[in-house]
Amino acid sequence: MPDPVSDYVLIPEYSDIKGSNKWILKINCQKCKFRELKETIIILNSNCRICLVVFLQKFQKDEIVAIINERDEKILESVQISWFIEYIHNFKFVNTKLKSIKKELHKKCKYFKTDNCRYSNFLNFLNLDLRNVDPISFFSELKKTYELIQNNKIKISICQNCFSSLIKYLNTILQKFKSFSLIKNLISEKVNDHRGEFLDTSKDNNKLIKKSRRKSRNFQFLLLKKYFIGPNDLYQVSIYKKEFQAEMIYEVEENYEYAEKVEYYKEIAGKVCSYLKSLEMNKLYSFQDLFNFLKTHASVYLKRNVPYISDKTHIKLSYFSVIKILNVKKLFPFLIDDYIEEIFLDQPKDNIYLNHQTFGRCRTKIRLYSEDINRIKTFLRVYSKERLDIIHPSIKTVIKNEIFHCRFSVDVDPLQLNEFCLDIRKLNKNVLTLLDLLRFQSISPEICAFLYFCVLKRINITVTGETDTGKTTLINALDLITPKEFRKIYVENAVESLDELSYEKHQVKYKSQSLENLEDAPFKKSNLIQTLLHRSPDIIFLGEILTEEECKAMFHCMSAGLRGFQTIHSRDILSLINRFLYHFKIDETCFNDLDLIILMKKLVNGRKVVSISEINNTNGIMVENIFEYVPRTNNWIKKKELFQTKTISRILKYEDFTKEDFNFLIETFIEIFNLFCKDQNLNLKEMASMFHIVGFLSLNKRYEELIDFLEGFKK
User: Fold this and answer.
1) DSSP states of 265-293 as a string?
2) Closest CA to 577 of 624, 609, 524
3) pLDDT digits (tens, 9 = 90+) for 311-349
4) DSSP line for 238-258
5) Neighbouring-strand partners of residue 12
6) Which residues does 464 contact at the CB level (< 8 Å), separation at least 6?
7) Do residues 319 and 231 make contact, with C-beta atoms less than 8 angstroms apart?
């Protein structure tokens, strides 16, 4: 077996109301000789599983909420740790059964002691110590042994005496293993249960690993997560990890109340569809109205014809019937899964793939055929009221209703060489706050505190980076913590900002026409930006700046004193400056109005704020970093004292506050972010309300009350 790493430390996480301690276990994987074999997810590696079993035996009485490595990267969540703890707690039961097998064979079989027993070749696991064995490998070997003995019944009477005992004991152990959460969650019923070589303690693990690598035909699939989406858990989603592949496998299936009645339910749904096709509709409905209209009629039909089905099944059959009749069956699950960020189809011969908020890039088995593609084209033409033909080979439109909120982008022939390309950006995906970004280690508490101070002081913030780096997510997260008295005005091509009416915020929203139709668009974004000068905003939300005209309008607004949030694509800060200077023809004297520039990157370990910078053009253009991300330590360093930054100096010209006051607020904000981050039950509304109080007390310099509020939250 591999040598478990020797360096570890228990880090206190927090104490609950009863005073029970929670711990984080930090282990040093650098000292492990198998570290080069680590997978993206550690529980997929048999050597790592053995190490975890060995380690967690030492801490059975401690409540471990997470395991991290030497780089502070999370290896396991608390739920996964509980799988291993459950397995460890059952060592005694399994060992007792193994001893019973040996005892029974010694008693009944005179050949067992001399290794002439016909079953001895199968029973090479009887002398193993479960405390040092990979549970998945052990389960696979146990299952294989049970099947071999059962399928190769030996009719010699003396062996027959042992057969019934062996089958009884092996079946008991096998059923016990199948009940373990570790086995149920790491081995899917849909894929091969044999997970590589059985770990024999007498063999060299390196040889086993090399041998398993040579068996390239039998790639392993491991179930990572199952969850449900849609009203009444309409669909079940399963995420799998394929061995030696960075992309996950995303599978979705209809979820009925009783699995054994699926065919019966589908027959009912087919009859509902036939009924819905017979309905007469003499006007053009919006998608939402049409969906509701059909669902209402489907519900009436089901109540009249199959009144004995449960309410839950009734609702599901109504949905499935309408989804089928509207020809959105293939795309619908993706549109309602809030964990999906973006959906792609590169060409008709390819399968759909997607970006998942938790698991990253995922492949699916879903393929769109010519009739599916034609329906999508018609759907977008009707609801966007735009052309899609040889002269206008692109459509980009946002469709928002109670079911989904997405930006659809379609390219067709002659622009698209493969005739059709689809990109769906989900705009109703799970809302991520600064607290979520902290939990994902995309940002540090000190950066959050500094940015929050800048938001309160209405500092202009530009977020830049490549595509899919989290730029819009970050400005939405900052937008959520603005004081509720701020009047905020939004100008966007595709509406990606959040609706914050339920959080008591003031919002005025304008939608400019899409970039594809700018030549004849009466409501260009640049025109709308300039009208903001007469709308009295405290904060402006400009979304994505795409063209030279929009960029010039943005700088015009900033020079006039308007401040807010915007995003713009670039590889890094120098590339951004080049875009401003040479592509958008902005004079460098205007750069002073930019205030803060945040650079985002999508790295191997997630999306990160990699720098927060200012531009100083006193003696030529100079980029001065305030914070900078260090990949080696997976942490941020402060390159400059915050009170000495150009941004704070600019505020001090017109506002009186001391360095002590500033440092007090930053330290208090850091503590607040850390506390809020640990409260997993804090919902969006509560979070917004908390920051309303914090913002009000901070802006009005009621620091003692701010301390009292913080102490109250701790209690």
Assistant:
1) HHHHHHHHHHHHHT----SPPPHHHHHHH
2) 624
3) 888 999 999 999 999 888 999 999 999 899 999 999 998
4) EEEEETT-SSEEEEEEE--S-
5) 23
6) 471, 567, 568, 569, 570, 573, 576, 597, 598, 599, 600
7) yes
